[in-house]
Amino acid sequence: MGASMVGRGSKERFARALLVFPDGTSRASIERDPVPRYVARGNGSYLIDVDGNQFLDLNANFTTLIHGHAFEPVVEALAHQLHLGTCFAYPTETEIALAELLCERIPRVERVRFVNTGTEAVLFAIKAARAFTGRSKIAKLEGAYHGAYDWAEVSLAATPDNWGSPSGPRSTPSYRGMPASVLDEVIVMRFNDADAARRLLSLHGRDLAAVIIDPMPSRAGLIPPKPDFMAAVQETARMNGVLVIADEVLNLRQSFEGASALYGLVPDLITMGKIIGGGLPIGAIGGRHEVMEVFDASAGRPLLPQGGTFSANPLSITAGLAAMRHLDHAALAHLEDLGNIVRNGIARAISKSGAPFCVTGAASLFRVHPMSQEPNDNREAYPTPNASKSMKQLVNFFAENGIILPHGGAASISTPMNRTDAELVVEVFSGFLDSHRACWT
Question: Where does the secretion signal sit in this chain (predicted)?
């Protein structure tokens, strides 16, 4: 079992880090209370910090490690590749093999380009839509995270103070100094509002290059899409010549064919990342052959030049190929079974206690919300100060009982986990409800 408070080893390292990083960390997403936990190593579904505490890891580097830590097929493949070379200015056969796997597996992925991160995948997908349509504006969902590209960040951090009316969300900046011109070029929609989606996409259709949709946005609640909303987006986009980009950097793990296939979305472009890199940095843009031709440089300068010193580097490609080859139907069924145990168990515990919580998610993903009713979109999922306090208590309780639970995003199941691990998650959650009963009765 771990401890909720970090130990001496983490505190010593954080004191050093404060001297070289702006806030002592190298990523804004690092959780701290007030000191971050420093990790020494990972093994399967567990991680061990520098003070020797072991935790069941439900973060898995923000859902990336679908096979857990130090997955042996990936380790072996990387060890072999390291002796052959780490990167080249020329292509390798392995990148063809991973692209073939994605094209065979994911509907509508007829051609692929590899990049280094999910952010780059979204960036180039949006650029590809612009190059294909000759238009510049995009539409996106309020509160949905699509990486660190300016246009994709609009209204990521929208709050009740600035997000505007329910029927016409305001485009809000995600950081101080974001150009006003960027805000003018992004139309913001609410998730699961079919009528508003039809109206906004019709009103701005002639100027829109693309609408980017995460089929189940994690930061916006990990909420399932309503069929009428997905249909409204797709049909209205098609009528107005607007490309549909499915951002599956996180949600590709929902099925063998990805998330779009589950929810009836037929995109023109799909962005991928996280699990397709086997634990190493990667991103990919896939899509219809006609659209992907904007990258074609065989006859000279393409409509959209795309390079990158480390794009399709042999290490990421090798790790990704090993990981994806082992993510077969049996592995995905195992993940879904465990996900169902966790979600159903948490839901039963909530129902029994009457506590103001709910659980959302699908397949190998789940998210606990400190509210009684399952939200429909980002605004309904937005936590009050009291709700945020409850989540902090929950996260700390899990850590005290040897489980890492993400504070504000998707928790994920990995293939090394078993039924005992899943039942432990439910047991600890039930223990939290019992021990904090006085907070809501």
Answer: none
Annotated catalytic residue, options 193, 274, 377, 421: 274
| Same domain for 274 and 251 | yes
198 and 347 belong to one structural domain: no
Known catalytic residue at 145: yes
Q: What is the pLDDT of residue 4?
A: 54
Q: Are 288 and 356 contained in the same domain?
A: no
Percent of the chain with pLDDT over 70: 99
Rounded-to-integer distance, Cα 127 and Cα 150, Å = 12
Distances (CA, A) of 215 to 196, 320, 433: 17, 23, 31
* 226 is known as an active-site residue: no
pLDDT, mean of residues 355-361 = 96
Between 29 and 75, the higher pLDDT residue:
75
Confirm whether 202 is domain-assigned: yes
127 flagged as catalytic:
no
Whether pTM > 0.85 for this model: the answer is: yes
Interval 140-149 mean pLDDT: 96
